[in-house]
Amino acid sequence: MTTTAQPTPVARTDKLLTIEAARGIAALLVAFFHGSHVVELAQPERGAPFGGFFGFGHAGVPFFFVLSGYIIYYIHHADLDRPGRLGSFVWKRATRIYPLYLVVMVLITAKYWFAGNLAWDYWVKSVLLLPQSQLPMLIQSWTLVHEVLFYALFGLAIWRVRVSRWVLLAWAILFCTARVVDLQLPAGLFGDTVRTLASPYNLLFLLGMGVAWVLRHRTIRFPRLLALAGGLAFLATGLVEDTGLYKSMAEHGLLPVVLYGVSSACIIIGLVAAEAAGNLRVGRIGGLLGALSYPLYLTHGIAISIAVEAARKLHYAGSGALLLTGAVAVACVAALVVHRCVEKPVARWLRNVWARRGAAPAFT
To answer: Whose CA is closest to 106, among 138, 148, 134, 143?
Structure first.
């Protein structure tokens, strides 16, 4: 009598190159999305590059949020209701987000300063990534505001899981209320925080935590097929949005956020399970794409704007698609330089600082 080995749930993964590659592709989508607008403004008579294909490129953000929920829960689920772990969690999350962000903010602050329109309350909220009624000084950092709120709520669960459940219930009530009632909130930090918490984007972090639970407790039988289906659904959602059907996406509409989120969840589950089982490999390029994702996300706006402006001064008259591709390539090179010369050395120094206090945490 013979037995067939049964697939088992994904019990543990370190950095998976397929996920790193997917994270890099998501950052590239965002870069092409913003770059399309910059090129279109520089060449208004030509229209959007690539026929407006990258109009859905902002969908890289929902993927990031689902992935963040997955990573945080997967790595820190054992820390829940263990207050002694809170300090390590806060240190790791703060040193992952803030050092490189603050370096970029120096450049943004200088731009506002020399333009003579630096408002200090706006600057403080932007630097600290506090919720506010307008986009922060570094426009794409609005996503980091959501990240910080998610980290705060997860940190609360590490401190006291029972308290976090009541907070989660209050958030669910707030979210459902915001779907049916136009919340009239006062201006200021409280009102801005409530509005940020009511955003459907926050569902994506919970969805990512669900992804981590599934990968820990359930068998994924056809992971590559699931990843492919998720990728096709993600692309289909984007193509439908390009037609203009999802106009509400600009106002954080619920339907497109959920569609991008569910398809992202399928992609992540499939990729993690397939690589953990040894059925999928992408090579070292995946690790490089993942390493560049955060510096590319933070700096692509600056690099693309400089590249397009340089092309204008050189009287470039070629296609917008070629200009966009070249500008994004410049942004990738700039991100590589920032990663090698700024992000890695700072991360190494911070790791050593923590090591002098005890065991150094793993940076993710």
So the answer is: 138
